[in-house]
Amino acid sequence: MKPRKQPPPKSTLKQALLGLYGIVGVSISMFGPFKVPFAEAHAKEYWRHALAGIVLVILLFTAIISLALYLFDANYFKSQIVDYVKTQNQRDLTLEGDIKITFFPQLGLDSGKMTLSQRNSSKGFASIENARLYIAWWPLLHKQLQIERIALDGVHANMIRYKNGSTNFDDLLATDVSLGNIKFVIDSVKLINSSVNLEDETAGLFLALHDVNIETGKLTDSTPGDVTASFRLESSRPRIDTKVKLNSHVLFELKTNHFELANLEAEMEGEAAGINNLTLNFQGTINSYPALERLTFDKFSATAKGKLENRKLEAKLDIPRLQLNKNKLTGNTLSFNATLLQEEENLTVSIELPAFAMDDKKLQAENITANFDLFKTGRTLQGKLNSPLSIDLTAQQIQLPAIVSSFSATHPLLASKLNANVSGSLLANLSEQNVKLGLSAKIDDSNVTGSLELQDFTHPAYAFDLAANTLDLDRYLAADWARRFQDDALQFDFSALKELNLHGKLRSGEFKFAKLKTSNLVAEIKSDQSSLNIEPLNARLYGGEMLGSVSISANEIPEITFRQKLTGIQINALLSDIIPGEPKLTGKGNLTVDLNATGVNIGAMRKTLSGNISVKLARGSLAGINLTQALLAGKSQLGMKDEERTDPAKFAETTAFSEFKSSFDISEGKASNSDFLMKSPLFTCKGEGESTLESGQLNYRFSTTVAPGLKRSSNGELAELKGINIPMRVTGPYATPSFIIDFGNASGGNMTKLAKVNIAKTVSPVPVTAKPAGKRS
Fold it and tell me: Taking CA atoms, which of 126, 344, 429, 565 is between 20 and 30 Å from 330?
């Protein structure tokens, strides 16, 4: 019997296809509506071949894809990317490094160094040293953007807001991109070694952020994540140099277009707004709904500590809730408290807005309350202010249209606490750097009205125009205030004048100071270039007028100049008010004062006092001596050698005159006088001399000539002295001088005859013996 002939072997490919047919057919037979013929037999016999074929196909497909990815080079598209940016944005994009793309295990991009120019300009806008982005494959296939990691190194950008409100990055902002249902999952974002320059031409601000470092935890749609950041903030206008650290929980909900920074905490250290050693901490929660144009701040508070010049500063701001809804801003409460400390000086300020709203860039509040309390050893100043508030951000104006305020003050120079009530209105124009205050104040029975103005916040210039019905400074000054300025060691500090720019006018219907009483006072005050000038200083007083000036120069050695001309005044009324006791000089006329002094203290000023004082009076009297009686009392001594009569001053006695003139040249602590003249119908008295200002010592020499036309019938015994000139001296302290009349050296007139009579009276007569009547010698 012949053996059966074996069928020829099937090819491996054919076996693999039959096996694949069997496997697929069995699957269809099990789950499908009909049974595939011969599928079960082929599956049993050729399943190994089918499986091997599937594996080979997968391996081949994988090898082809891997080879394609290996051969893919993104740098081939550099020119297309650059051209696209140039066409779409009119910017120059420079890709300096190689672009690297990785596909496993994540889709990754490594950019290398890139720079981007300003729009239609070669100037730089931004640059990146390196950017790395890694995206998970599997979520991407399910329309979920899961970014494993974003790492940006050396990002530098220059951002500008122009005066017309546009920016230099408007064309880069996406305005119509829809993310659909794509879900974001970001494991981490890291930004290091970066910087940003921010310039706002409208506000005149320039900010620079250096050493910017930002790092986040996992950021997932609708799930909060952590973010921390640090950077250095610098600015030349305004002056800022600080280090900033912040951390917060970040939440974003793409479906509702909601973004939140919850439990935001930030710390700033450095220098800002003239404050050194600044430590600023703030916290709160910020919610943003861009689609609804809504932004809210909840439980926002900020505290600051630092040094403002030589003062320690502490401040706190609290805003429980602040909401910006489209163009309308509302808040229920805002409170601000600040304290300045410097050794024995303490200033506390508090401001509160119970409720406020801002619409169309105009903020309105029915009431703002401000309190301040200034304390310095022996001195206090307290005040409280209420007013409606209006702020127009477009016009950059702040208004307090109806101010009601009260103030109180204590000072060593005040007799008691001074209280004042002030009402008025304030307008501050920030764009023009101008502040105007119209006021009406009441201090006891004094009513003050007028205006105050400030120009230029950088180099302030102050102006004022004030008028009062009456001002009695003596009523408020301590009784011994003048005595305190007699201390030679008292220092003058006019350093504040070096930076003071002030101009204004003060008017008062009645004015009293240092016991001087004036009316219709007008004083124009100007301070500029380290000097203070009050000119004119005019008023009516004591039946006459005053016209003059006062100036103070804040040089290294201060200088004070006082010039005043008083015309038609009653000198006795003036002296009665400024010098205790009965006036020693009466009459009506003119007083001219021109004095100058330099020095760092009262003692130096006293020693350098110089200038002149002149007096010209009519129909008055000089106290201390009755010259007519003194001359008659010494009549019997006329012509007698070395005969002098010394009498102490008796201020109850006076000498009447029809004309009185005298001028004093003041220098080196002395007042010299060379033109003293006192005239009356009975005599003419001329003289010269000096007085020492420190001690009040007098040393004067006079010559008194009795009028030659006197008659016995009308002038009595004084007529016997007509034409006679009698020397006289006045010596001793100003308060108790002595009058020395030199009758022995008198001359002129009927002096020879009177001298003989007086001499004859001093010789004893020889006795004569009478002879008896009727007898002859």
Answer: 429
